[in-house]
Amino acid sequence: MILLTGLILAIPGLIYWLWKQESIYAKQAHQKWLRYPDVELYLRKTTPGGRKSGPTCHHCGSRSIRQLGWEERHDARRLHKCNQCNTSLYRSYR
């Protein structure tokens, strides 16, 4: 009987702990995404001459850039990476 009572009390505590851990992870992941520059800031820093041809990789100069979902494929938060050297470039929100 005491074991059953202990389990009944422990299960909600475990569920709350797991929920809290997930919310902490989500907040940390979002903060990490915010560390990347947005597209306007990236263009200002990497194209000082005001080139109108669009973004290029600051590492290798390639114009082939892909966008990935931050945590999953259909995430609205996007991370843009160079197709040639795989450098993370900037973030956007879809």
Question: In short, what is this structure?
Answer:
This protein has helices at residues 2-34, 39-46, and strands at residues 65-69, 77-82, 88-93.
Mean pLDDT: 86
**Binned strand content:** 15-25%
- Total helices: the number is 2
Question: Topology as H/E string?
Answer: HHEEE
Strand order of the largest sheet: 1-2-3
Task: Explain what the structure shows.
The chain has 94 residues and is an alpha+beta fold. It folds into 2 domains: 1-35; 37-94, no CATH class. Helices cover 44% and strands 18% of the residues. It has a 3-stranded antiparallel beta sheet, with no helix packed on it. The longest helix is centred in the N-terminal third of the chain and has 33 residues, at 2-34.
